[in-house]
């Protein structure tokens, strides 16, 4: 029997769930995909970290979480969702996990008035 693919959930956030839950359920948002890939790479002894990027081809255009894997003496951006290629990503930040590269940390009440992101080839 073949492996079941992951289902990308673009509208739902899975806060408070660990990597094993997303791996077992085979679903999640880009951050969850990145955490599963990072966990598997680290389990295999390959250094890995999370990166926040802007990327061509990602819909909706927004911050996108990918894994950064250290192979052949250099770091490589790897999008586990398959939406973006390494050469089409602009790295914003890197860290051990998503908490290190969050774009916003809020204490108290916050209201989002709007957001606009446009990613285009140079």
From TrEMBL:
Domain Transglutaminase-like: 22-82
InterPro entries, per the entry: Papain-like_cys_pep_sf, Transglutaminase-like
PANTHER family: BLL5557 PROTEIN (PTHR33490:SF12), BLR5614 PROTEIN-RELATED (PTHR33490)
Protein name, entry field: Transglutaminase family protein
């Amino acid at each position: 029997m073949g492996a079941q693919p992951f289902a990308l959930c673009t509208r739902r956030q899975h806060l408070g769930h660990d990597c094993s839950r997303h791996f077992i359920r085979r679903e999640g948002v880009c951050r969850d995909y990145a955490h599963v890939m990072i966990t598997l790479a680290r389990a295999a002894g390959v250094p890995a970290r999370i990166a926040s990027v802007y990327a061509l081809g990602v819909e909706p255009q927004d911050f996108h979480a990918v894994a950064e894997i250290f192979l052949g003496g250099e770091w490589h951006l790897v999008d586990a969702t398959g939406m973006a290629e390494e050469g089409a990503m602009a790295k914003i930040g890197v860290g051990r996990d998503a908490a290190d590269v969050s774009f916003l940390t809020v204490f108290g009440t916050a209201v989002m008035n709007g957001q606009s992101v446009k990613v285009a080839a140079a």
